[in-house]
Amino acid sequence: MESRSQVVMAVTIATITCATTFVFFRMVSRIGIVKKVQADDYFMLVAWNPALMATKTSILIFYLTLSRGNKTFWWFCIGTLFVVNAAGVALTLLNIFQCRSVGAAFMTPVPKDAHCTDIVTIYLSSAPVNIITDLAILFLPMPILTGMRLPRKQKTILVITFGFGAFVAIVDVVRIAYLQQASVTRLSEMQTSSPTPSGGREETDFSWYASLSFMWSAIEVNIGIMCACVPALKPLVSRFIPKMLRDAGDGTEKSVALQGNEAIDMAVAHRIPSMPEAALKRYSPPALEPAENDGPMGMMDFLTTPDMDELPAQKCERTQTAMTNTSRATPPATPTFFDFVNLKGKKSMVQMTNRESLFPVAMVTVLFFIWGFEYGLLDVLNTQFQIVARMSVGQSIGIHSAYFGGYLFGPLTVGRLVLKYWGFRACYIVGLCTYACGTLVFWPSAVLTSFPAFLVSNFIVGFGLSILEVAANPFIALCGPPRYSEIRLNISQGVQAIGSIVSPLLARKVFFKPSLDAPSLIDTQWAYLGIALFTVLLAVAYYYVPLPEATDGELAEASERADCANDAKINGIGVIWITLGVGVFSQLCYVGAQEVVATTFNGYLATLSPAENTTNFMAIAHTAFAVSRFLAAGAGFFIKPRNLLLFFYAGAITFSTLTLYWNGNVGTALIVIIFFFEGPLFSLIFAQTLRGLGRRVKDGSVLITAAICGGSIFPPIAVAAAG
User: Fold this and answer.
1) Residue 196 CA: distances (Å) to CA of 87, 191, 192
2) How many CA atoms lie within 13 A of 402 on its CB side?
3) Chain segment 427-436, per-residue pLDDT in tens
4) Is the pTM of this model over 0.90?
């Protein structure tokens, strides 16, 4: 085989040289110009060895200096810092103790009495944590940077500077590709050269197979060092190439950042329900003291100052937020992101007309379609994995239950907290990011073909989607006139069902070949990675989408009725609480029954019509499911929601009973009709249960969403009964 040593050596030396140059100029900037060396600089010197954990630690410590007044950002940085160092220490220990005894890791061939873990498998298993922290480091500072009041050119340069971290994420994916290639090539070589391969390094030329993946590991570390040093080079650029950082004709323009008191301004802009209006009126900012004319400058100073000579005067400027809290100030400009997204003065969602609610409902409905598409694709991927891993029926049901088990814990813990204190939009972002983390955890699950790891990954995915649903469903129901709540939710849920129809067909026809070998499993892993990356980008995009919110007071006002029906009581118990209890129980049973039908569909069809294609018939059943939601939405203009609920419940129960007595084509048609009657039930239950809850709407949404955990209870019971 052709030697790779020269290429690997040349590329590694070149990237180390570039990283060394960047570190050198970073220290020149910090010592010679800024005159202040901080903890992140010392960690960067440690990272120069090189060490990926130290590089990320340096970046995150640097982030902690960006906005000390933003507690949310600060805590997210601390959390990411913990994950980075915990994972780094764990991976370091795994590398050190990859063999028993330790010295066997440096021996070829491996002694017969030693046992070694495949190092490529270790690296592939650690890939999700690496990618998650890469993306966190890339996107964490963006809300602060894009919220700064800066000249457009400076803002663009600043965002691009911090965006260099995208290169590290890209290199990380390339490195993973080479690790996968090394793993598959080595596996194929072992299978063809030895009838009973044991997996030891002596059976293949490990250094040759893994050389390119290790080269890209070095590239990842060194590019990470260079990207981390770029923001610290700004003082040098300002000193020697000042025009590069200035817009034409902005010689006197000052930069104003939304920091320190930005939480108050953003509370007004986003209509956060946890920030009462009285608190906003009472708030009085601390007095701003003039800064000294010399001494070391802060991090935000040299990042946002176009000319180093302007620094002392700029330090004395008042922020836009501070100006809004004085009676003498002129009316402040509306807070924006990138100067084009207007977020202030949004009308409450419960006060919107049909025309006004069209845009926000459409944007959240797009979210419904995407999560339906990803859910359907994920279902196919799970099936593919279970076939390759040769899992039993009990294990498959366990994975299914783990997914729906996440719905019990997600809403009651994180979902309730985020919805109550940060609002609907925050739930979308947190839910999508958690979902992305779960799909990334599928990667080591597939690499290790580990059933416990697969259980964990499915639980995280369900946990994330439950946080998303705890806000998305009530948002659609509440955004606009209340008489059309069920109609809006059925339309959005119908769009979600379309996504779940399209993705399985696309996955089975395009993505996967009918093979059960290692390359087939690797295709599944790459699909997981693609879903995760797209979901993270979607979460970032929804941060900037202007969506309305509603305070508890506005929700209470919107629930009031002229006939005071929302205050009625039966035996001293409020009708709304009885409705809530019945609604939660109804949702629990409905989702449980729906999942029993879904999980037994293939077996039922194979018994009645063995010659039929289960994939095609499942697509037909899901189409009936989606069509019924749109039909129910149309019927909602003429028929009361409670009557529709009764009709579809009666139909589902009736045709479920009939399937017990019919075989052949009639039995097949009956189970498809069951899907038709199931379709609108979720939306009808959800929207009607929320009616009249007022300021308790968010708590009601948490309980109804948690009831989706019925999908983890009834399928195991059905399998046990059938066995």
Assistant:
1) 34, 8, 10
2) 19
3) 999 999 999 8
4) no
